[in-house]
Amino acid sequence: MKITRILLILIMGFSVVFALNVPKASKYDAKITFATYNANDVFEIKCANGFVSVIKFSDDENIINIATGFSAGWDINDRNNYLFIKPKAYAIVQAEQNLTSPDGQKIEFNGASFIQPNPKDWKTNLIITTNKRDYTFELVIEQEKPFYKISFSYPDEQKIKVSKAEIKKKELENKQNLKKELEKTRVPKNWDFIAHVNKNSDDIAPDFAYDDGVFTYLGFWHTKTIPSVFNFDENDEESLLNTHIKKDGNYDVVVVHKLSKRILLRSGQKLVGVFNKGYGKNPLKQPQNTISNKVEREIIKDNNGTR
Fold first, then answer.
1. Which one, of 260, 262, 258, 263, lies nearest residue 288 by Cα?
2. Cβ of 32: how many Cβ atoms within 10 Å?
3. What sections of the chain are H helices per DSSP?
4. pTM greater than 0.85
């Protein structure tokens, strides 16, 4: 009894190992089928006499080589990532027939005869090599239930695509979050600014000024000219400041990437001095170099040491 059970298990095991992978039918029409690629599987392709079947591989796949065990009985053509398969009649040439009459006389036969595709004689294998994968098929005649189309799916490839899509989505989310952080409106900490406007320089004078403990903000009515912004240090020397501009209603706000005691605004011969009277009176608990405490500015230098 134990021996019988062991044999039964072994037989069942071998039946699983050597079973063909039969593509699964679509829920809409059984002639449209789908198969999951496995390099170690043999896929059964059911064809019918008088009908063509097509195998669709991956979109970026091109067929390189086709080999079958019975090429005379199958018409197989490829185009890009599609393979078209059709059983065809096999012609028996005159030399193969050796026809004789009942009295032993040789019969002259000038025409060829044909054997039509049938399940017994047309079963064979098909090997396909593409630029990405190898495929092994078994071709059979199934006149009643042929496959019109077989489409492959590739789980490993799909995982890679999903992984890349997730990475791209995450990168986009990080960029959007970073943009939101950098565009976030900070609460003004200091409005104590005064401006000295030189003659004929009113159109470069800011309408308001404040700082948030990190950056200085100079607001200009949208019709005004945006000047260049310079730091005016204790040695009365000027240095150009890094800035960017953002919109705030009808105002163009020049965001100066620094807190300065004295700022000079220049445009041609026009000059305006802006003085931060509240400089250093209300410092942040933790120093920052960007508008957001979640974003750090990093200065990158090239091989020459240039920023």
1. 258
2. 15
3. 2-17, 155-183
4. no
